[in-house]
């Protein structure tokens, strides 16, 4: 029996060229999964593919616009036809949004952008993969949210509503898909301390807030946000990826309809 968590599993990662998506793809491949990474930028996908291939992992890439439902459906069908099934899916797609602007200065467009963007892609990708999952092979859909789903702080209205929406989506979808042998589990990391160095959009996201306090983004993350957690530190990409691999594995086979809290204690559920 293989000691690998995800041996013989087929995993699709949307946003697979990004910081979190790439980190998860590398761990999934290390744990034996055949990984299909999809995203908007071929160069970023190629970089992740090279790293995985260099360690002997199995990986394929595809440029897919996750806002295009027909394109996502077609890609999922092609993956299922090639691999025989889709066992795991993660939506790690990022949507740039505002943080730091209060209601008086927030436009309707800025408020709606993350709500529409995040939930639209989550609906499209979940619907596409679910039809190729479950039954005799257990399926797992992983989602990502943020502490904003439960934090009562100002200046993050659109962000908070979108995060809460993603968590509600995950819980309700878990109930709907459970009879088909599909689990749905949310992962709620805080801001990721090493994400800026990995090329994520975290720098752009927090630049305005950090500058207002006379800090760099890294200083804001390590000295500001981190100090608001019980552990006095933020999660790393590796910690998120390792958690995702466990939750996607059969060892977490009874975990569904819940949110894994990786906030370092910024939230205590």
From TrEMBL:
Gene3D superfamilies: NAD(P)-binding Rossmann-like Domain (3.40.50.720)
InterPro entries reported for this sequence: NAD(P)-bd_dom_sf, SDR_fam
Domain of life per record: Bacteria
SUPFAM superfamilies: NAD(P)-binding Rossmann-fold domains
UniProt entry keywords in alphabetical sequence: Oxidoreductase
Pfam families: adh_short_C2 (PF13561)
Family stated for the protein in its record: Belongs to the short-chain dehydrogenases/reductases (SDR) family.
This protein's name: Short-chain alcohol dehydrogenase
Organism: Kibdelosporangium persicum
Lineage: Bacteria, Bacillati, Actinomycetota, Actinomycetes, Pseudonocardiales
